[in-house]
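Annotated sample (chain length 110).
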Amino acid sequence: MSCRTRRVVNRLSDVLRLAATTLERSQSALGAYYRRMKAKLGAAEGVTATAHKLARILYRLLKHGEAYVRQGLADYEKKHRERKLKGLQKAAAVIGFQLIQKEKIVGVVS
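Output written by the structure step:
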C-alpha cells in the first residue's frame, strides 16, 4: 500500500473500494475510468480515486436527489480522446508547433 492511500477503518470506505475493484472488467465509463487511473497512478491509488468518484456520485444522489445518468463507454472514450487532443494541441502551441490530423490515403496497388 502506498503512503498516499491511508488505511481507514470505515465500512463505507471498504464498500466503495470493493465496488471500485469490481469495475476492472466492466465495459462502462466507470470501468474505463478505473482502468485509466490504475494505469496512471498504480493499483492502490487507482482504487482510491475510483472509490472517491463513486462517493461523489452517491453524495449527489443522496444530497441533491439528482438522477444518475449512466455514461456509455464509447461516449467516455470519445470525451477522453477530445481532452487529450486539446491538451496536446495546447502543449504544441506553447512550443510553436501545430498538430495536423493524418489523412487516410487509399491507394490502388497494381
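Annotation: The helical segments are 11-22, 29-41, 43-64, 73-94.
Annotation: The chain has one domain: 11-94.
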